[in-house]
Design a protein that fits this description.
218 residues; alpha/beta; Rossmann fold; seven-stranded mixed sheet
Length: 218
């Protein structure tokens, strides 16, 4: 088994052993679990194709139970930072890191319990890739990114074929089921922001009902 896949399986095994995985104690913040195998495949693709390197800092905005951030760090060796506002989710992430430390401490992983819209990390960092579920409040944070840095997200549902032009890209984003929480006005505002201020997004994967997309700030 390849080393990355072996470490990925370790994360999945450890995660399901954590006693605190009762998510009923969450606050008002919605929690959307990132598909684990998709983020594994996406980061593997980005590294293998030289889009990002192992010296890249991975920042997960709204890192939840910490699994995505752990995959970036424990599996692929990236310096990874997860920022999560919900205390219960943050505590699960800390447990996950503690369990992984029993296997090795040779990975750079940090979790911060904070509102990611109020944490200023990005003005001083270069060689960064930021991950988020396309929450509406992420736009002011992305504005802090330096030119050339990346934003990665995933979408579920909708038409997941490769867009041929800008209009098709806009429609595909608009139709995605990932936007069930957002109004039409919020969808339009975020889509315009991404397509106008970031390089045309790169289609990465198309696993069943999920697609991963990458944007580069220009």
């Amino acid at each position: 088994m390849e080393p990355e896949l072996d470490r990925f399986n370790t994360i999945q095994s450890v995660y399901h052993e954590i006693d605190a995985l009762d998510l009923s104690n969450l606050g008002k913040t919605p929690f959307y679990a990132t598909p684990k195998i998709q983020i594994f495949q996406a980061l593997k693709y980005l590294i293998q194709n030289g889009i990002i390197s192992r010296s890249t800092t991975f920042i997960d905005l709204g890192s939840g139970t910490g699994v995505t951030t752990a995959i970036a760090s424990y599996v692929f060796g990236l310096n990874a930072i997860g920022i999560e506002g919900d205390l219960h989710l943050y505590e699960i992430a800390i447990q996950l890191k503690s369990r992984l430390n029993q296997f090795t401490t040779d990975f750079d992983l940090e979790y911060i319990q904070a509102d990611f819209t109020k944490v200023e990390l990005f003005k001083e960092l270069d060689n960064v890739i930021v991950f988020n579920y396309l929450a509406g409040d992420v736009l002011p944070v992305l504005d802090q990114l330096q030119l050339g840095n990346y934003f990665i997200t995933y979408l579920m549902g909708g038409s997941l074929g490769l867009p041929l032009n800008r209009d098709q890209a806009r429609q595909q984003l608009f139709d995605s089921a990932s936007w069930s929480y957002a109004s039409s006005e919020e969808k339009t505002r975020m889509i315009n922001h991404l397509l106008e201020q970031y390089r045309s997004w790169r289609y990465l994967l198309n696993p069943p009902e999920t697609a991963i997309y990458l944007y580069q700030k220009i």
